[in-house]
Amino acid sequence: MFVARLVLKNWRNFRDVNVRLRENTYLLGANASGKSNLLDVFRFLRDVSKSQGGGLQKAITDRGGISKLRCLHARSDPEVRIEVELAEGSDTSWRYVLGFKQESRGARRILVSAEEVWLNGSKCLLKRPLEGDKKDVTRLTQTHLEQIQTNENFRDVAEFFGDTTYLHLVPQLLKFGDRIGGQRLEDDPFGQGFLERVARATVKSRESRLLKIGKALQLAVPQFEQLDFEKDGVTGRPHLKARYAHHRPHAGWQREDQFSDGTLRLLGLLWSLLESNSLLLLEEPELSLNDAIVKQIPLMLQRVQREIKRKRQVIITTHSEALLSNPGIDARGVLVIEPGQNGSTVRELKDDEFGAIKDGLSVAETVLPSTRPKSAEQLGLW
Fold it and tell me: Of 132, 246, 248, 377, which one's alpha carbon is 20 to 30 angstroms from that of 284?
């Protein structure tokens, strides 16, 4: 299953969005244009979908309340609305709609204003508010998406949203996790529990994935030879170890706390691609990586997706000229976020941009210049 279309109303800094998404979608835009906010739509639906420790009210509270979610440019219409079209193979499609807003008086609760589920475009499985909702308004404080007793007919949708992964691996949290300590964020977006994820995989899956990742690292990391997994004999803590070319056979092994930041980020990216077939959200995967490696990220994504039976859809935010210079990027999967006086807009490439790419220019050459701040050169004079 993958997201085919996203429609938004009054979500954060977006008044209106209506765009198609591809197997690999690249989000481009200036700083503070809303790239992270757009990714957060899918994290929000993931949090709503959790039957335990989640739900609509917690998802909103965790983001600072509805005032932080509702677009500041939404003047007359206070409803926040999310609509997602999902494709499952060639024969099955879903459409999920969720609208919510605050009561105008009384307890000022956040209530579901609309919740719809459509199968194959014409079969309506759910359309709220229901008669029971109107009689007992408290029911509208919860979605049917989060309730296993009410989402039976569309549980595939709930599970798809619930399995969404967001990754922005911070190498220092992984290297120095024992010394840093502290509370780990729910869903571990920064990779602090990455080694535990590796350890939880079955032995067969883990060995298969590490073998594939090792082959990729041989091409990307100088003198890299082998990647392996082990548990500390004293503490039982999981570790990754890598062997590098060395004139002494047993002297070339290193644990993850000795890996470079770039190696760890690349390792986390490749593992996540192989780990599941759900939606994967990547924020600036180019950080800590050499441009020569960054340029190959689009091809690595395509190669991994070809090798697994159930492909994983990936949505990427990036500023990287190196990444976007790869000629293998499908221009149909590029979305540009443009800030404006009435909020940010999201658009697909224009005809002249498609034409330039067809004539041999890269996405970096064609699109990136339009996302750069107009006064960036003045920073050097500040």
Answer: 377
Model pLDDT for residues 258-305, shown as the tens digit of each residue: 888 888 888 888 898 888 888 999 999 898 888 988 998 888 888 777
| Block residue for tokens 């190696």 | 263
Q: What is the pLDDT of residues 21-46, one digit of tens each?
A: 999 999 999 888 999 999 999 999 99
Q: Where are the domains of the chain?
A: 1-164+319-372, 165-277+285-302
56 in Cβ contact with 69 (< 8 Å): no
- What are the tokens at 202? 């079955």
Q: Which CA distances in Å does 268 have to 166, 218, 246, 369?
A: 11, 15, 25, 30
Rounded distance between C-alpha atoms, residue 95 and residue 326, angstroms: 33
The two tokens of residue 303 are 């190669």
> Which amino acid does the sequence have at 262?
G
pTM here is 0.91
Tell me which fold the domain 1-164+319-372 belongs to.
Answer: Rossmann fold (3.40.50)
